[in-house]
Amino acid sequence: MSEAKLTGGRLPAAAAAQWVCPHGKSAAQGCVTCYDDSSEAGSAAPVWELAVWFTSERPMPIAALKDVRRHGGRFALDQPSTPLVYLLSGQVRAATAAQAVAGLVGFLLANRHVVDAFVVTEMRAVHRTVGGSGPIAGQSLMV
After folding, report:
1. pLDDT higher at 6 or 121
2. Across the strands, what pairs with 55?
3. Are 98 and 27 in contact (CB under 8 A)?
4. Angle of helix 97-110 relative to helix 32-40, nearest 10 degrees?
5. SS3 53
6. What average pLDDT does this structure show over 24-49?
């Protein structure tokens, strides 16, 4: 598994470039176009297992957490034991890890009724073979 991490500093240009979606947006900021593309992605696109941790200024009601499962279908939004820290996870078909993560975060942008302001603190993408049991490639970034 290849891994890119940032802990408390600026992201090196080479590492930052791997997390830019095809529409020129940082995966951590999200991309609604990548989100829309992921829902229309054909079966030829690779499957990515994703996890995005983010913070929010205000707590999200339990109903909103459940609402994501109902509207997102492919995604789950959970709150670990830390207040105001949330985990959005799911599977997305996309050509690259950056496009997959940008689409997952784009889901939050497209659904501002769930969370209106957030900051992504960490994101992970693991590419799995279709029907396979293990990861074939993975990327991780702590921002």
Report:
1. 121
2. 85, 119
3. yes
4. 110
5. strand
6. 85
- Chain segment 56-102, per-residue pLDDT in tens: 888 887 777 776 665 556 788 888 888 899 999 988 888 888 999 99
In what helix (H) or strand (E) does residue 54 lie, and over which residues does it extend?
A: strand 47-56
64: left (phi over 0), alpha (psi -120 to 50) or beta: alpha
Q: What is the pLDDT at residue 117?
A: 86
CA distance 68 to 133: 27
Coil, strand or helix at 9:
coil
Own/partner long-range contacts of 22-28 (Cβ < 8 Å, ≥24 apart): 22/95, 22/96, 22/99, 23/102, 25/102, 26/102, 27/97, 27/98, 27/99, 27/101, 27/102, 27/105, 27/123, 27/141, 28/101, 28/105, 28/120, 28/123, 28/141, 28/143
Say how far apart CA 89 and CA 32 lie, in whole Å: 16
C-alpha distances in Å from residue 133, one per residue of 44, 96, 128, 129: 18, 20, 8, 7
pTM of the complete model: 0.80
